[in-house]
Amino acid sequence: MIDWLYNYPLLYPGILLKRYKRFFADVQLASGEVVTAHCPNTGPMTGVSTIGSLVQLSLSDNPNRKLAYTLELIQVHDNEPTWVGVNTALPNRVIKLALAKRLFPELGDYNHIKGEVVYGQDKKSRVDFLLTGSEQERPIYLEVKNTTFSEGRLALFPDTETTRGQKHLRELMALLPVTRAVMLYFINRSDCTEFAPGDMTDPIYGKLLRDAIALGLEVLPCRFDVCPEGIRYLGLAKLKI
Q1: 206 Cβ contact partners less than 8 Å away, ≥ 6 residues apart
Q2: 129 vs 169: CA distance, rounded Å
Q3: 7-11, 20-24, 35-39: range with lowest mean pLDDT
Q4: Which letter, b or e, does each residue of 70-80 get, where b requires 16 or more Cβ atoms within 10 Å of its Cβ?
Q5: What Å distances lie between residue 23 and 20, 55, 69, 125, 156, CA to CA?
Q6: Is the pTM above the cut of 0.85?
């Protein structure tokens, strides 16, 4: 029996007909009905939004929602048929569960997990997680980045220019070495075994990441198996810098 870290609710299979205005996806369900689903991913979803792809939708019972369905998974065929998680609201929830289970030995000991902590020079940014332990241990500021873009078995982040991502790297660099700073890349597909910055899409981000690593930033490129049943942790991808 597979020990899933996260279990999806009942999902509804379909075929992607169109994705538009970032937040909308037209999907033909197995029944033949065509529905418009909410696409919870504001990025370009490079390589993972091909028309005609198999998809999986969740269905909300909230009567106040304008769109009852949410796009959760898209199947790609880059290496072999692989489900890719496209709901960007999920990675932080899954990582919180993983942190509670102490699934990342690289982080060492910590006693407290706090989410959405204000930090940075202007105090206008929020880091995804702050991990603290004994007074002797440096606090850990941990940022999570959803990663779906790939070339073969190499996962890449970002899939487009990200000034917000650049800002996060600069703010994490400013914390070093007084605290530990960790960038966790949530590789939302099981077919990638290596990770690298997406230099072709955002060369500034790639340079900043390398500069940050030289200063002591820790990088965890975490592989996840994602399928309609749920999500499980597979371990770290090989980091290629």
Answers
A1: 197, 198, 199
A2: 15
A3: 20-24
A4: bbbbbbbebee
A5: 7, 15, 12, 24, 23
A6: yes
